[in-house]
Amino acid sequence: MIVRWVCEKDNRKWIYPIKKCLYCGEPVKKQVGRKTKVIGLTKVNIPSPLHPITPYNIILLEDEFGNRMPKKTMKDYKIGDVYSIEKAKTDSAVIITKIKYDLGESLKESLNLLNSFDIEKQDKVLIKPCIIEPAYPYQTSNTSPKLLDEIIKMLKDMGVSDIIVGDQAMPGNDTTASAKKSGILDVCKKNDIPLVDLRKSQYIEKTEDGMKFSIAKEIMERKVINVPVMKTNSQLGVSGAMENMLRVVDENTQMEMFAVDIEKTLPKLIKALPKFVTIGDATIGMHAQGPTLLGEPAFMNMLFISKDPVALDSAFSEVGMLPTPEYIKEATGINEYDAYVKKLEIVGDELEAARYHLKVPDKTASAHPRIKLIDAKSNPLVFYTALKASSKLVGLPGHEINIAMGKFLTEEMVNGKKRIIAYGTDAINKLKELNITPIAEVPEDMGDIEKLTLLKSILENPDKKSVSVKDKMKSKLAGLGAKIKGAF
Amino acid sequence: MYYVKGVGMTKFGVHSKTSQELCYEAVMEALEDANMQLSDIDQIIISKGDSLHDGERQRLFQGVLSNILGCEDIPIFRVTAACSGGGSAFWDAVHSGKKNVLVLGVEKLSPCLTKYLTDEFMMAAERIYEQTEGLNFPAQNALVAQQYMIKYGATSDDLALIALKNHENAFDNPKAKFYKKKVTLDMIKKSPVVASPLRLFDCSISVDGAAAAIISKDKTDIKIAGSSLYAGRLSTFESPDMSTWEATVLAAKDAYNEAGVTHEDIDFVEVHDAFTPVELLSYEDLGFAKKGQGPKLIRDGTTKINGSLPVNTSGGLKAKGHPVSATGVSQIYEIVRQMRGRCDKRQLDRTRTGLAHNVGGAGSTVTVHILKNLGG
Questions:
Q1: Residue B53, in any domain of the structure
Q2: 269-328 in A: which are within 8 Å (CB) of B?
Q3: Do B129 and A100 touch (CB under 8 A)?
Q4: What angle separates helix B19-34 from helix B61-69, to the nearest 10 degrees?
Q5: How confident is residue B376, by pLDDT bands cut at 50, 70 and 90?
Q6: How many inter-chain contacts (A to B, CB under 8 Å) are there?
Q7: Range(s) of the domain holding residue B48
Q8: Is B70 on the interface with A (CB under 8 A)?
Q9: Min Cα separation B223/chain A (Å)
Q10: Cα distance between the two ends of chain A
Q11: Is residue B95 part of a domain?
Q12: Are B147 and A44 a contacting pair at CB < 8 A?
């Protein structure tokens, strides 16, 4: 598909979506060419950061209107070949699309490539974006409001009238405040679509492979379009189609899933849910220390679409040249889902041609270079409050401290580490079990100010072997002082 | 009306010198050549690209230049236009209205790893259609060459002859990267394929360097008779005919009109041969050959140094070297030096009218300058 915006009066053309001709003021029409043939080609042998694998081919395509575009491909074409994209053959196919300015057209074209898009106009639809924290759209923590708007527009054009948008923010964050800052609330209001905080839902219990899930009623009763932001995740490796569905269960279930082992329970949750289609938002995407604000925008300009969330996450991690996350390996073989890349059916842009080198998250990194994390699958509340605390201490000089989290801590993980802080009840108990004495203990219910004061004093004092009663009093007083201040 | 007073240029190549030092060297030579002092200058226009990988981390280069030249009382204006930065800076100077203007182009590319350089250059291409599809500049120009070959029957051998000619010229240019370095047709034809059909020797070489020119309203022996700049579409695949770069055609037409000359009056040319097919296309877009007839000029020796229309006597971007923002000004340097009879073994007999053609992107931003030799 080649898209141009054309002034019919003087035949000027633009690759950008504009409304009126700048010369004559006449409205501009969209021209979509679908009959493309190869008119030129080159084999490129020099790698660059955006295109690290060589050789690759670039074919020059021309459509029935004479419009052209270059296309990267690993396949060999000849001049004169017809270029066409076949539709998906299976439910596990992943559509990869590099967006060419027109997000709406790219979305429609991509969904048309599915073997079937199983939503009819009489269906009740829930769009499940990613709304995890209060962040602006450019920060890419949350689903792009533009993409959400295009999905709603497309559904309305199809005649679907019963649409809701639903999610819950990460534990500790407010869903509405997150939706507001991300621009998602505005899109809902503009389209007269209710935003449902799934944290306030009624929950339906479902057991899968011995694991009990309390799932939001709306998820079970509606056709679901899952719209995650495609990101790296410093705990799980990837946040995508599967991880985004974590927040359709209540907080207790989420905590339990981490307590049991998130890498094993996440595939079980996917199995417990009714089937859904995922539109993976890589319009920008996130990499490095995602999936929260510590991550960086990746500027991928792509969509990943599939009815198979395991295949989608697998394709994304391959495109991003990331190590395959454990939860994807665990998910291989559940139902018809298949994560083996070699068996993936990729439609649209070729996987090899879409490769985009993403920064792999450093699992030990926090916001402060001297604060290291030893994360043993801690739950999101523990993990992200630790990250938040470290970000408040950025810029302070200090000496290395190691924050140990999660109930899966092992001797091997803490061996050789000095100045360990047991962060969260799981870590406190586990270190006791391992007979390791931390320099300090930070339980979940410790107040933010108290926590920060404590961490700051340990960070700044290299000789601190343990936290004294005086330290504890100081931090408690700081916390109390903040509370009193707040009261006034 | 403007005239060229003096020119200066560092050797193009791999330097241990900083950008500041390169600037200083080129400016000093230009001042001495013009028999002027910095206090005579009313404005400075500098062209330099931005790099994250050159190790210098100097984005506000006007200030850096002010430091090295010690000239706080002279307005300094910076132009960036990728490979056409030097030509664009020169065009700005000609349109500045100031009496004496120093134009300077500088680039420090050698510390950048090739992969980063390829990536940084690619930022001069369109992001969504070109960069994401891997269309770096060798690939862009490879597609252009192929379209030309399909349409007009040119061959890779024609491109090889262009490379050979420019290397032969650089052999005798002490300021060229390939000075005294023998390159044979066999070496060119056997060099590795970078982006088919282009081989390594079809591509210019990225180097460090600076070039400076001082222009003035005071009459000298060299008149800037025509000065034109056009910014065409960023993406060459959008052109109705990829084998013609419309911005070159328009800029040439304007410059000829302004100078009151036609292509037949041009004695010698410095063409933007970032890739050999660009030189081929430019023969036609500048009017020296009809469409499809460009290869004839290289096959019959017209554009060789002893031909009737010598092109790239300096060695061009191909063999003199291509320090991006300095290139356009270095073309002026060569023309002025030819007109003043200072090119030793490369010295041409006829130097009445010379033309400099500088391109940014794949045909996007183009400058054409026509200089007339009033002295000879």
A1: yes
A2: 301
A3: yes
A4: 60
A5: low
A6: 97
A7: 2-113+207-215
A8: no
A9: 37
A10: 62
A11: yes
A12: no
- Strand A295-297 and strand A277-288: the pairing is antiparallel
- Residue A325 CA neighbour count, 13 Å, CB half: 33
**B192 min Cα distance to partner chain A (Å):** 9
What are the tens digits of pLDDT across the range B263-294?
999 999 999 999 999 999 999 999 999 999 99
Tokens linked to B262: 């036609």
Is residue B350, in this structure, part of any structural domain at all? no
Structure confidence by residue, pLDDT tens digits, B291-317: 999 999 999 999 999 999 999 999 999
Residue of B nearest to A4 (CA): B238
Q: Using CA coordinates, name the residue in chain B closest to A40.
A: B143
For chain B, the first-to-last Cα distance in angstroms comes to 19
Domain map of chain A by residue range?
2-83, 94-354, 371-487
Question: Does residue B322 carry a catalytic annotation?
Answer: yes
- pLDDT at position A113: 97
The answer to whether the Cβ–Cβ distance between A42 and B132 falls below 8 Å is no
| CB atoms B129 and A70 under 8 Å | yes
Backbone phi, then psi, for A466, in 5-degree steps? Answer: -155, 165
Q: Which tens digit of pLDDT belongs to each residue from B206-257?
A: 999 999 999 999 999 999 999 999 999 899 999 999 999 999 999 999 999 9
Which A residues in the span 76-135 are in contact with B, Cβ-Cβ below 8 Å? 79, 98-101
Contacts of A63 in chain B (CB under 8 A): none
Q: What is the pLDDT of residues A238-259, one digit of tens each?
A: 999 999 999 999 999 999 999 9
Helix (H, G, I), strand (E, B) or coil at B199: strand
Q: CB of B133 within 8 Å of any CB in chain A? A: yes
Exposed, middle or buried: residue A422 (CB in 10 Å: 0-12, 13-18, 19+)? buried
* Structural domain A94-354, CATH architecture: 3-Layer(aba) Sandwich (3.40)
Q: Check pLDDT > 70 for residue B107.
A: yes
Tokens 């030990």 map to which residue?
A: A364
Contact B27, B212 (CB under 8 A): yes
Helices B276-285 and B246-259: angle between axes, nearest 10 degrees: 50
Distance CA A242, CA A264 (A): 12
Question: How many domains does chain B contain in total?
Answer: 1
Residue of B15, B167, B272, B322 with catalytic role: B322
* A69 contacts B195? CB cut-off 8 A: no
Question: Using one digit for the tens of pLDDT, what is the confidence trace for A447-473?
Answer: 888 999 999 999 998 888 777 777 777
Asked if B128's CB is within 8 angstroms of A301's CB, the reply is yes
Q: Are B312 and B318 in contact (CB under 8 A)?
A: yes
Q: CB-based contact (8 Å) between B234 and chain A?
A: no
